[in-house]
Structures are given as C-alpha cells and as structure tokens.
Request: fold
Amino acid sequence: MGKITIAIDGYSSCGKSTIAKGLAKKLGYIYIDSGAMYRAVTLYCMQNKIIKEGKFSEGEVLKAMNNIHLAFNVNSLTHVSEMCLNGINVEKEIREMDVSEYVSPISAIKGVREKIVALQKKFGKDKGIVMDGRDIGTNVLLDAELKIFMTADPAVRAQRRWKELKEKGMSVSLDDVKRNLELRDHEDTHREHNPLRKAEDAVVLDNTHLDLDEQLIFAEKLVNSLE
Ligand code: DC
Reply:
C-alpha cells in the first residue's frame, strides 16, 4: 500500500500525540501536532503582553498573527518534529499550564483559525503524515484515508496529564489539571468555528482501559485494513 494520511482528533489529554507519534514512527511518517501551533500563538501573545491579566482583544491577536512565523523542526535525536516560534524552539514552553489556560479562547478566534488551518493544509498536502488535533478529520484533512476519534474517561485523562506534567518537573495540582481539561473540553466542543466533533467516517478509540501497545495494535490494524 502507498502512503496515506492519518487524522487523529479527540478531547484534551486523551493521548492523541502519543499514539500519533507511535504510529508515525512505525510507519515512517511525519507527525504534525496541530495543537502546538495554537499553543505557540498563545505563547507569543503572552510574551508580548497581548494577553494581559487573562484578557485580550481579538483585533490585537489578529494583528500579532502577522509577526508570527511557525515551523516544525525535526529533533535529530528523537526524530519527532518540534514547534518553532519565530525560529526559536518553544516545545517546552508551550506545554506550561499558563499556556493551557488561554489556548482554547485564542484558538476559537476565526482569523487565527483561518491562518493556522491554511498552514496545516499545506503541511498535510503530501501523504505519509499523521496529524492530531480537534478538527483535523472534520476540517483540515477531509480526505484523510484514516480518521480516528479518541476519547477516554475524564478522571483518567486528568490523572495521566497530571503525572506527565509532574514527570516534566512542573508543579501543578491534580485539581487544577482537572479544571483545565473540563474547561478546554467545553470550549473546544462549543466554539462557533470548527468545534471538536467526531467526523462521520472516523473510528472511535476509547483508551480508558488500554495501554499504549494495545492502542497501537488497534491503530495499526486499521491502517492494514485499508490495504
Ligand atoms: O492538542 P492540544 O491540547 O495541545 O491543543 C491545545 C488547544 O488548541 C486545544 O484546547 C484546542 C486547540 N486546538 C484546536 O482548536 N484545533 C486543533 N486542531 C488542535 C488544537
């Protein structure tokens, strides 16, 4: 079988990126983390005081978009693509909790989405790509041969995310992580433009009780079934 395009969507902290990276590695595909792009825009707005005391004006964010250059650089050690904002690797900074606080409202701005989605479509032009996010199967890569919609019990997701942040040395409470996930799920599914929803042709993967190996086997079977 020739190379295909794989779109993975789902709720926050479902393990989309873990499975997307694992699949990309197995298949020799490129992995694109679409959420990282919205996170980088949010980080820029925070660094440049466009988000001040939790508030921002859409007009200012849109103006800032003209000064933002986003690119993915492949890490030579891990072979995973990492987010660069105006030439600087911001892979670590964009995962901080304060970026997570504001990324959903920033990503809901129509003009922000238009620019980012156009870029994502460009990145996804060639086959041999795994892209994860919220609207990849429903908006960005409509023709993807394989679409997966991931979900998991919210309490399990919060616990996993909290553990991951703690392992990265970030000090954050489980309650704060839980609150952030609930808020983002609500904002991402209720926004006006490209809300999170399952594409009609997507296969659901509920990984509440599955480990990574089991999920990869499930996803690989789906890929092989396309042959
Ligand atoms: O995947 P993530 O948690 O890093 O994404 C961060 C935020 O970006 C998420 O809360 C909503 C937004 N996002 C989006 O609107 N569309 C995407 N395709 C990916 C992410």
Observations:
- Residues 19 and 216 are 6 Å apart (CA to CA).
- Residues 12, 34-35, 38-39, 103-104, 107, 133-136, 184, 188 surround 2'-deoxycytidine-5'-monophosphate (CB under 6 Å).
- DSSP finds nine helices and eight strands in the chain.
